[in-house]
Amino acid sequence: MTTLVAAEAASTPLAGQPYVRPATPADDAFVEELQAIAFGPGRFARTAFRVRERFPIDPSLSLIAEVDGTPCGSVWMTPISVGRRKGYLLGPLATHPNFRKRGAGKLLAREVSQRALARGEGSFVLLVGDQDYYCPLGWDITTPGNIQFPGPVDPTRVLLLSEDKSLAKSLKGTIAAF
Ligand SMILES: CC(C)(COP(=O)(O)OP(=O)(O)OC[C@H]1O[C@@H](n2cnc3c(N)ncnc32)[C@H](O)[C@@H]1OP(=O)(O)O)[C@@H](O)C(=O)NCCC(=O)NCCS
């Protein structure tokens, strides 16, 4: 009985604190609106968007952050490979402006990466983002020019998370199918 109560308490979201859950088709309109707010019309020209045009996202790795039952953030994952090594491209990651600086963004990035890597099929999580935001979460700077995207990217923003700490420097190749 005590164990059951403890387990329920552990899974109950704390008031005012972000928590994550899998996205469902009912979240589609929220996610579309959120991405428009966060990235604007220029989002369709982004190189990461071009990757997602070529290779489908994995809907089972789409997560929603909520605060007190209100959706406030979203993240997607695209299974990819680089140099025949399987992994994932994280993004877009966005939090609604009214809910920023509560930890939802970092929670989404951490949680979706843990869930993806725990499957044991892919060994890295790649993204294009700010070092100051992602490096404290475990992402490392890649070797500039090693990873070829289907469009221009700022090489200092190409970051990689892996249990294999040498992979960020050594991974090399064009982004291809998983
Ligand atoms: C970036 C974003 C997802 C952060 O969401 P969030 O829910 O506010 O993130 P968290 O609450 O987990 O973290 C907030 C902290 O990160 C900092 N931070 C936010 N964006 C940052 C950035 N680009 N670079 C460095 N630090 C950043 C905040 O200043 C804040 O710092 P503090 O904790 O010292 O106050 C959100 O601002 C967003 O949706 N931005 C627009 C879209 C975008 O840029 N997405 C990322 C693309 S890679």
TrEMBL record:
Origin species: Devosia elaeis
Top-level taxon in the UniProt lineage: Bacteria
Alphabetized GO MF terms: acyltransferase activity, transferring groups other than amino-acyl groups
Lineage start: Bacteria, Pseudomonadati, Pseudomonadota, Alphaproteobacteria, Hyphomicrobiales
Protein name in the entry: N-acetyltransferase domain-containing protein
Boundaries of every N-acetyltransferase domain copy: 18-172
Signal sequence residues: none
